[in-house]
Every structure is written in structure tokens, then in C-alpha cells.
Design goal:
about 1050 residues; alpha/beta; Rossmann fold; 7-stranded mixed β-sheet; 42 strands; globular
Amino acid sequence: MVVPTEQCIAASRMSAFTAALEAHTGLLLKDYAKLHAFSVREYRTFWRFFLGWCEDIDWGGDTEPVCVGDDCEHATFFPRVELNYADNLLSLKVAGADAPALCECRADGSRARITRGELRERVARLASELEGLGVHSGDRIAAVMHNDAQAVVTALAVAAIGATLSSASPEMGADGLVDRFAPLSPRLLFAHTASRGFNTGGSPSANVVQLAAALPSLEGIVLLEDGPLPSNITLPVHLLGAPSAKADATAFVWRRFPFNHPLFIMFSSGTTGKPKCIVHGAGGTLLEHLKEHRLHTDLHSGDKLYFHSSCAWMMWNWQLSALASGVEIVTYDGPVASVDTLWRLVADERVTVFGTGPAYLKMCEQAGLEPAQQFDLSALRAMMSTGAVLYDGQYHWVREHVGNLPLQSISGGTDIIGCFVLGNPNLPVIVGEAQCKSLGLDVQAWESGSPAHGVGQLVCANPFPSRPLGFFGDADGSRFHEAYFAANPGVWTHGDLVEFSTQGSARMRGRCDGVLNVSGVNVGPAEIYRVLSDIPGIRDAMVVDRRASLTSVAGQGVAVAAGVPVRSRERCIVLLVVLQDGVALTGALQSQVRRDLARRTSPAHVPDVILAVDALPMTHSGKPSEAAARDAINGLPVANAAALRNPACLDMIRQHPGLNLAVNTLPPPGTTRETLEPYLQALWESMFSLSPIAYDDNFFDLGGDSLLAAELATHVHQATGLTISLATLLTAPTIARLANMIVGDARDALSESLVLMRAGVGTPLFVAHSITGSVMECLALIGALQSPRPVYGLVARRLEGNEPPQQDVADMARGYVDQMRIVQEHGPYALFGYSFGGLIAMEIAQQLHRAGEEIELLCMLDTYVDEHCLPWYPWLRHQLGYVARQCQTLREMPAARRGRFLRGKFACVPDRVRLRLGRTAHKPAFDAVGLPPMLLRVRETMRVAMTRYRPRRYRAGPILYVNAVTPMVERADPMPLLRRVARAGMKVVEVEGDHTDMIVEPYMLAVARTLDDALREDAPPSQPPLRSPRSSTGSGYAI
């Protein structure tokens, strides 16, 4: 964590603005949370005051009304204000004429420096020349430009006369340029046409010729350099330096234009169809950028900003606006020729604020670069990263190898030409998180039309000035509405996944359209990428789903696409990896990927298929295109290959041999260990689409979960006629141990409810199973414990065959106590349980205490109780809350769906009655739909047990309750009941995340620390003797 000093906080522009706002309103805004809350609650006051606070900004007219309209889709800001965007960027009130404004860096190492006065004069000359060519306010200008001084002059001159600029990069192919500019009917085309050694996308001059031929509206081409252009061009061609040099800069009049006058037309990536032409207004862009630069980035006159970008990406426009804060901006027209290229530029130019992306930081990390040792970075005071999710490892790398400076993760987009979450000079930088929400923007995480508890869609619930004016050519606004407001009327829905902490910091989780559904579990690709970023040898990665209709053939053969393991039914998850030079995708590397993902996230995050590729599809703005990769993986035509920088990589992905269907024939299982091990090996390799798998590889390290365990049990049963319990894999998670248990001397051990999950020394820790009947979901948590104690899992009695199901928690506990006494005859006992397991652990502790035993630890991890157990007033509060939520859902629901919604609610009533009577429901719980029959039976039986169990007064000692900060709103708050029954007291420890997140990284680590602390505090002075679990001898298969 990087924490700002008191001196830095006192000197920041954020502090100065807050003090001025407090004086203006008479309010005490003692922290950022209060400041932000005011800025979104009283957004009209906030924006009016901020505009006035920026005293060096020139504008005219009346600030009233601040905003016309109250919903985000139709609101209009400052309709009576006029200003000139370019005039304000070049204002000599912000910094003097001799102040540095621009440093142009070229690939050959040469530099050109321009002062503020010189830049203003060059812009005025070109603006005068454009007026002489007949360009007027409202005309549209297209530009294909490198990131250099000429591009800056062009953009500002176009804005100075009130025309609208659309820019792209010369690396873009002709088709991509036509897709962007043709709908705009531009009047003029500015272009760099000279080839450079680092150019991609074809000949720049040929692309310009093809583009010009597709633009009948063009009246001329302005060359930004003395480059080649074929003689068959019939349009007038001007050279930037020649005509503009004749113009009189002093004669140019800097006129003001309406606040919402079109300034830029930006483009969406275009990977799902033709690019959308997004129109941004001059006033909204300027005001948002002033706020982000001056308050959130703390830019001052004298700062030097370099953000690695191109003219095809909104960060180029974002950096351009920093001129309005007196900042010197740096442009670089050249390739990243070596890994240290950008650091050398930052050091040589004494850059104070450096912006880049996670891909570059990871490349530096993998190359072993030491920027702080290799370069003089003493001028650098802050860094920013955007364009993709920034992972924890990159924060640590910057801290260790660049310096103790804030690395600000910022995220927004071309859609708003700004940021929704970003930095703050007054707040600490927390690893993996953006520091705060942007002032004036009511940014929230939503799910199903209301605020989410945890990860949700990023929305903005209030109007904001930088909302685009609309899409060009969308006369009725229907496409604009569909893109941003159809999902949540009146609320901007951005398309990103985000999770906010209680402090207001944000953790980005990737794009909503990239979310994968694994057996009903939503998996965000960003969670996978976060883990992969820490694995050496992997340069880049992309995960997509492949739709399939393949079924497993148990016994003699298994149909798999190196592609499709046996657990697949309609889709599988494919991970594409780009490896570092000299690294191969070996079985060991694949195992590490699967093992780390299973351990640090969950088995649902483990890919079915891992394929090594040379490159991943990237847009021209440098962003990965999961949509294009998904089309290629599924053999579909890519919607718009021209939107990609490297479309050739799609053919390589589409034709990858690892996606070809093959049928693996399994060897016969036989009846001996020698025949059973090869059978299990072939089965596992088919299931995991991984070869080779060694006999001692761990099922769970490879990504196995309860669903895959059920598949394995089904295959073994169909191939041999024998039945094994799911708990078997907890005891024997390798091929060798599993084969030994099946044919060896441990036959009866397979039916035990007690499973050794981790060996150790000292008094055991017992883990009670959850509503799944298993403790598999706690494997990663147990692996994270530092305590040396052995850990035993208590799993549900097998429900196959004629064994009666256990539907009573007290009955379960009696059986588990008997099993626990096998390894620990007397107390003190230590127990914990996750979710429903907390109630089982409590009942076990109750029974042991009544038997005279001492309880060392009872820990309940986010355990809920059935609502009927609550005291009367909390029960009533829960019921009223439930009714209120359903009514709100009903009100927001289209009328056509309300009848079905109500019928569904009433249909649940008989099942609720059945559960109270101790019978399983006719309809399984929503999170159990689709489970294999064996797992479904366990899940629904435990559901009955939880409904019927009423905790009694507990006097065996204090209860440790670990509570997830994000609650399950559909479940009743258990605290009123638990505090009542905990007669010896209860300690509550809160951890970040929700009910599911708390047992996976990163939140799992806090839970593990809490358990470790409790085990140290409560460790008994002496250790009772431990016994080994019972085992029986015999021959043949264990059933």
C-alpha cells in the first residue's frame, strides 16, 4: 500500500477544492466519501462550482440552468454556456507563453520542443488556413495521424474553428479506416503518408488513397509530412507546413461555441460489427478532463505528462486536454523497440506522470527490468495504468523496481472519453484496486436492475457532462439507447464488471460480455488473468467459451476435443496463452496453471482446454478482442476483422490442432492395480484434456471439483460396476492412491465420514461439511493455513444405495462425534464449518460439551440460519425487507412478465411447507439445478436439515464468527439469534467479499489468518494422543 504523506495531502488540488467547496456550501466534507456523496447528490451545485473554481478557464454566458433533465439518457448540461476548447487548452492565463507545452520524441532519438506561445501561434495559423479552405463550424474532419506534434496542431486547429475531429492511426488497415470514416462524410482528410520502419497495416499512402476513394464527400487532403502520394489522386492536396506558413496567426479570431458543440467523434472497437461513431461535446470533454487532471491526478503547471498511446485511442485525447492545466505533454512517434524504450523516454524527458498499460508492465517484469537502477527516475512522482485490468503482481513490481510512488489504476472508456474510477492524491493506493469513484459520477455495481452485493455491472445512475451527445447518424437515438440504457432505463450501463469495497475503492473484473458460465457459476476472465499474471513463462492470455454438443462415452471411449472434456455438455472453457520465447506448453506448465487457478480462485475457473498460440487478436487501440477469439474458436466468421490490428492470428486459432475432435479409447480397467492405474490415467487425461498426467498428480490441483468427481465416479461405476463415494477422492486424490484404495486393503475406509485433508502435528482441526455434503470447497482455505495441525474433514454419509438419508443435524453430529473420537479421544476439540457447516460444527460442539469435553475453538464461517429460527422482531424485519424487494422488482418489471413472476413465487409455497415437515422439495434450489443426481440428492437433503435445525443455547465457550462484508440479501441476518444463543460470548471478524468469495483468493487469505490467530490463541498446553483412523483388510474392489 502506498500512503500519501500529510504534506502531499495538504498541498493537493483535491484538498484546495474541498476547502473551497466547504466554504461555499457551509458543509463539513471531512473525507473523500462525503465529498463524493455530495458531488452526486447535489451534482448541479458541484459542476457549477467546479466550473467557477477553475478561474483560468474562459467561457461566456449563464451557468443556469446547470442541467436540464434528471435522467442520464436525456439530460443536457450548461445549455447557455459557450467556450472554445482549443483556446482554453492554449490559454496563456494557465501558463505563460514561454512555458513548455509539447515535447515531440521520435523513433531516431531526436526531439522537438514547443513552447505554449509557439504552439498557440501554429494552431492559429492552421485554423486560419482551414477557414480559407472553406472549413466551417460543424464540418467533420478525418485524420490518419502518428502521435507527433503535427497531430496535436491539427487537432487543436480543427477544434479552434468549431469543426469536429475524428482520428485514427496509420497502423490501421484501409478497411478499418473506411468503416470508421465513411459514415461521417468528412470534408477534409489529414494524413501521415510516409512509411516508417515500424509501420504495420500496409502502405500508409496506399491506405490513404483507398480511403479517399471511399469518401465522396472529401474536398481535399492535407499531408502532415512531405510523404508520397500517387499522382492519380484528383483531389486538391495540401502540405501542412507550406500553406499554413502563409496564414496570419494574429488575424485568427478565437470564437466561442455552445457547451455541447460536437468536438470529437470517437469509435467503438468494432469487433462485434461496424464501429459506433460516438459524438462528444466540447464542454463536457473539457470539464471532465479538467476535473480528472486537476483533482484526481493532481496535475499542476510544470508537470510533464507522457501517456503511451496512439491517435486511435481516447487516451491521446485525454492527454491532449492536459494542456488546459498548464502541463507539458510528451508525444512519441515510434515503436517499443526494446523493453526499456518507454522508461528511457521517461528518464530522459524528466516525466513526472507516466501512463501505460498492464501489458507493458508485465513485459518489463518478465524481462527482469530494473528501471529504478537503470535510469534516473527521480522526477517521476506518479504512474497510471489503463486499457486492461491491472493485477496485483504489477503493483508489487512497480513498488520494488520503480519506486514507492502511486500506481493509479484508471478505468472508463471511449464511450465517456474519461474515467469512472481513477486515482486520488489524498487516498492510499491499495494493491489491485482503483482508488475511488470519479467525482460527480454516481458509479455503482448493479445486478438485475438494482445495486449488487459484490461484483456487478458498472453503471452511472446520475447525469454527467461527458456523456456523449449520441451516435452520429442515429437520428432517433434508438441505437444509443440500446447500447447504454436499454438494460437499465435512465441509468448508464457501461458493460464492465466491477466490485466496490466498503471504502469506495474499486476492483475491475473485466467486461460483462466476456463473462463465462461454468455449471451455473459466473466466472470473470479477469479473475483468471490475475492468477496467470503471476505464472512465469506466460506473456499474455485470453479465455473464451467454446460451444459444443459432445457427450462422453463412458467405459470404452471418451469423446474429447483436446477441446472438450467429459464434464462438457454444451460448452467448454478454452484458455489461449502466448508464451515467452523459449517456453513450451508442457504438461508441467498446464498442471501449474490448473493448480494455481483451483487453489487461488475456484475449480470453476480452471479451463477445460489450454492452447498455446503465437498471438491474440488485438484492436487498433491495443485492447484484446475476446469476441473475435470466441468466433474463431467456434468456427464462426469474425464480425469485423478490419477492426483488428492482427487479423491473421484468427486463422491460426481457428485451425489449431488442439480443437480437432478425437476419440480416446480407454484401456480396460481390469481387477488389479497394474491394469486399473492405466485406465484411470487415460480417463483423467480425457477428463482434463491434459497429457501426460502422472500417477501422483493431485486431482484437485488439476482443477477437479465435486462435479468432476461425480463424473469420475460415474465412469468408474459404468466401467466396473462398482460404486465409490465422492469422499474417496479427498482421501485418495491421486491415481496411485485411488487405485490402491479400490483394489487394496482400505476398502472400508471409503465409507468413513472422516477424511484426512492435511497431515500435521498437534491437536486436530475438524472441518464440518457445507450444504453440499462435502468439504471440497474449503481445500484452498485449508491449504492456506499456517498452523501445523492436521486437518480432518467431516463429510456427509453416502446417500447412494439403500442407506437412509440423514435429514437431522443432531443425528449427523452424533455420527461425526464417533468418527472424531477415532483420532482424538478427548478434548479440547477445535472445529469450524463454512456456511451450513457452521451449524453442524455448533451441534457437534454442543454434544461434546454435554459429554464433559472441552471445546478449544468453534468457528462459523458466514453461517446463516433458517428464518423461522429468528426472534420475532428480526424475523418481521426480514419479512418486510423481502416483501419490499419483491415489490420493487415487480414495479420495475414489464407488465407482460408480472403474472409469470407472481405464479413462480406462489409455486414455491408448497415446497417451503415440505421443507418444514422434513421432506425434500419438489423443485430443487436455484443453485442446485443441473447437478448430477447424486450431488443433487445430497444438496437437497442437507437443505431439509438446515431448514429444520434450530440452534440451542451454547455454553461451551466463545464463538468465533467470520462474516463476509457483502451479505446474502435473500437470507436472514443470523446475528440476532446467534448472539442470543452464544451464552459465553461471540467474536465477529469481518472479511472482504461475499459468501462465495471469502473462501477463494484474495479474501480467503484473511479468513486463513483469522483461523491461524484463533488456533494460536486457543492452543491447549498439552496435546492429547492421536489415533489413526480405523481400516479393515480385505481383497477385491472397495464398494
